[in-house]
Amino acid sequence: MRVLFVCLGNICRSPTAEGVFRRLLDERGLAHRVGVDSCGIGPWHVGKAADPRAREAAARRGIDLSALRARQLDVDDFDCFDLLLAMDHDNLAAIEARRPPQSQVPARLFLEYAGYPDRAVPDPYYGGDRGFDKVLDLVEAASLGLLEEVETRLESES
């Protein structure tokens, strides 16, 4: 199974989600069975590291984002991933606008997994440091819900 987290520039929200979810998979011994990546809708930050504020906030919770580099959503992602998770409604709309006609891969708002079916992960880029902690709180909650679904899928495949 492969999961792709998608935000606007791939330097704040989606790399945070990738880091948090990777840690959960490691803790459950599932990292070898689930692929995880993140990307952005736009090209502005391609090749750059996650925002320093995102890295610092994640590091305070024991999550290392230092190796992650931004990339842009590619048409091949619709073939390579089993689930695309958007951080907000605009990201979800952009995913759908780029979807190849034959693609059946599900795309959803990430916070559906935290019990917030119509809620977005707020973009902390233009705000203060507290915004990055809020993003982590939301991402951690949604990641736990996603982990439950992933474990159920993996059990049914066994």
From TrEMBL:
<dbReference type="Pfam" id="PF01451">
    <property type="entry name" value="LMWPc"/>
</dbReference>
<dbReference type="InterPro" id="IPR050438">
    <property type="entry name" value="LMW_PTPase"/>
</dbReference>
<keyword id="KW-0904">Protein phosphatase</keyword>
<feature type="active site" description="Proton donor">
    <location>
        <position position="123"/>
    </location>
</feature>
<comment type="similarity">
    <text>Belongs to the low molecular weight phosphotyrosine protein phosphatase family.</text>
</comment>
<feature type="active site" description="Nucleophile">
    <location>
        <position position="7"/>
    </location>
</feature>
<dbReference type="InterPro" id="IPR036196">
    <property type="entry name" value="Ptyr_pPase_sf"/>
</dbReference>
<protein>
    <recommendedName>
        <fullName>protein-tyrosine-phosphatase</fullName>
        <ecNumber>3.1.3.48</ecNumber>
    </recommendedName>
</protein>
<dbReference type="GO" id="GO:0004725">
    <property type="term" value="F:protein tyrosine phosphatase activity"/>
</dbReference>
<keyword id="KW-0378">Hydrolase</keyword>
<feature type="domain" description="Phosphotyrosine protein phosphatase I">
    <location>
        <begin position="1"/>
        <end position="149"/>
    </location>
</feature>
<feature type="active site" description="Nucleophile">
    <location>
        <position position="13"/>
    </location>
</feature>
<dbReference type="InterPro" id="IPR017867">
    <property type="entry name" value="Tyr_phospatase_low_mol_wt"/>
</dbReference>
<dbReference type="InterPro" id="IPR023485">
    <property type="entry name" value="Ptyr_pPase"/>
</dbReference>
